[in-house]
Design brief:
about 25% strand; 2 domains; eight-stranded mixed β-barrel; Alpha-Beta Plaits; alpha/beta; 13 helices; TIM Barrel
Length: about 350
């Protein structure tokens, strides 16, 4: 398989070219916030046998092939604190050469650079279909033997067979402008898993509204996938993830209305983790809310948590919104949320995420 970077220069969300055409020697400029950070990086570059030189202004200049720099970016980031990574600035010049004033708008933090450099890895992950879905049950609070739905949880599989979790995949995709591709691929593999596993239940799928430049197009493409799979949209609930709670509420409402009009259910995740989610509850009027797992954890022993959780459940009931308590890990937590009116529960006490059991081939 050809490296996707050799086909098209990829762009980040601000449309600045981040990854060059694969080929010859390039030049990476690194500016550091302090001497200690510079020392860490110099030691790492020395151990990895990179060619580099020190320049004025706490700057290191590295001459290397893009592939080597790409592969070194994440290991190097792990050696830095988040503050150091955010405050270290980098610029890669694919054709090498000295800096010009035209280069400086393309300077990014090392955090951004290390994630954006993984775009070729993410393309490979998608092209080779190394995404999968695991499912975690959501059950009736008053009788956990009665299933209600499954939450679909995205996983990636690296070529070294390590598990890649959604937070990392989304972080990489966001940095290199590939959220829409990842979002579409994750929906596809989830629906395929529903069909192969003959899953009859309602399925919750995480939704990142910022991934869709055109929500109508995103809905239409999802409906097309469902039609081919003979799955009714009423069986799918799209769950707004925490990272999108900060979006403009009016825009988010329009996005969710587009999904509702197509027949999908809508859920609001991590309610109780902050004021913003409570504020959005009355504006968005979701079909379901999910109590934040940190709020549920130890709720039976913490009067402060208990009061907040109780009021959220009461507000949801008054609005006709059904509640799901996430992260239930003990019998005491289950008894508390059940006693106080939660409709459904989800968590390790019930079951851990697992792959569906596919029927044997005929």
């Amino acid at each position: 398989m050809n490296d996707p970077l050799s086909r098209t220069p990829l762009r980040d969300t601000r449309r600045a070219i981040v990854t060059p055409v694969i080929g010859g020697l390039g030049r990476l400029y690194i500016w550091f916030p302090d001497v200690e950070t510079q020392t860490k990086v110099v030691q790492h570059l020395t151990r990895q046998s990179f060619r580099f030189q020190l320049a004025d202004g706490n700057c290191v200049v590295v001459d290397a092939e893009w592939e080597r720099l790409r592969d070194a970016a994440i290991p190097l980031r792990r050696k830095l604190t988040q503050f150091e990574s955010d405050d270290t600035r980098v610029l890669f010049k694919a054709d090498g050469g000295d800096l010009t004033t035209a280069d400086f708008p393309r300077v990014h933090s090392f955090t951004h650079f290390s994630l954006a450099s993984q775009s070729s890895f993410l393309h490979d992950l998608l092209d080779s279909r190394r995404l999968t879905t695991v499912f975690q049950p959501i059950v009736q609070a008053t009788d956990i033997s009665k299933p209600f739905a499954l939450e679909a949880l995205l996983r990636g599989i690296s070529r070294q067979d390590t598990i890649l979790y959604p937070a990392y995949l989304l972080e990489v995709a966001r940095s290199c402008g590939m959220l829409t591709l990842l979002d579409h691929a994750s929906r596809t593999v989830t629906i395929e898993a529903m069909v192969r596993g003959e899953i009859p239940d309602r399925v919750f799928i995480n939704l990142a509204p910022i991934a869709a430049h055109d929500p109508v197009e995103a809905v239409d493409s999802t409906l097309s996938i469902l039609r081919r799979a003979s799955v009714e949209p009423q069986r799918v609930v799209f769950e707004v993830t925490e990272t999108d709670h900060a979006l403009d509420t009016e825009m988010l409402r329009r996005v969710l209305d587009t999904y509702r009009e197509a027949g999908f259910g809508v859920a609001l995740d991590d309610v109780g983790s902050g004021y913003s989610s409570l504020n959005m509850l009355h504006r968005l009027r979701p079909d379901f809310i999910k109590l934040d797992m940190e709020l549920v954890r130890g709720v039976h022993t913490d009067a402060y948590k208990a009061l907040i959780a109780q009021k959220i459940i009461e507000i949801a009931r008054s609005l006709g919104v059904r509640t799901i308590a996430e992260g239930v890990e003990t019998r005491e937590e289950l008894d508390w949320v059940c006693t106080h009116g939660a409709d459904f529960v989800q968590g390790y006490l019930i079951a851990r995420p697992s792959e569906p059991r596919f029927p044997a081939a005929a």
